[in-house]
Inverse folding.
């Protein structure tokens, strides 16, 4: 599943296990729609803590500009990465068999002041990808213009759906 684009990745898409990929690939798809280069890797906070810290510490110097981190259960990966990098970290709570993802959500969202993680909804990996695009587009003309185009299309689609329902 690890894929490294030919060009410099701007987004680090990491997860605690390859079992998280069915959720996290929605973030990858969103990045691909906007042509944003990314890398995808398993970096478990609990099973490979040394590598996880090294990943976070080296991310900015390697040219990454946003990290999307997904994990399930005792989901410490996004917060731990945020504690060792200046990059914005977007956390994706991955739902597991028990507790409907509430455990993942609460593990990620309730960060102490000073260590920010932007948490999306349970299994909200598509929004994580789109939020990363927005972060990259801030101050970036071409990407911002494309994003405005997508938003206009989205709004038109919603209006069409409302009309079709007779609203
Ligand atoms: C978490 O444990 C991972 O992020 C994953 O959501 C969960 C289960 O991992 P596996 O046992 O499927 O590898 O750390």
């Amino acid at each position: 599943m690890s894929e490294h684009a030919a060009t410099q990745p701007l987004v680090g898409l990491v997860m605690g296990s390859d079992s998280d990929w069915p959720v996290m690939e929605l973030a990858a798809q969103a990045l691909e729609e906007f042509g944003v280069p990314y890398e995808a890797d398993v970096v478990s906070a609990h099973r490979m803590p040394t590598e996880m810290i090294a990943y976070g510490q080296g991310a900015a110097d390697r040219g990454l500009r946003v990290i999307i981190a997904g994990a399930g259960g005792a989901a410490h990966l996004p917060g731990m990465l945020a504690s060792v990098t200046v990059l914005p970290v977007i956390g994706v709570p991955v739902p597991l068999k028990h507790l409907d993802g509430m455990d993942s959500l609460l593990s990620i969202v309730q960060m102490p002041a000073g260590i920010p993680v932007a948490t999306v909804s349970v299994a909200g990996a598509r929004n994580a990808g789109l939020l990363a695009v927005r972060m990259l587009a801030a101050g970036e003309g071409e990407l911002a213009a494309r994003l405005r185009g997508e938003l206009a299309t989205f709004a038109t689609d919603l209006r069409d759906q409302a009309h079709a329902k007779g609203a």
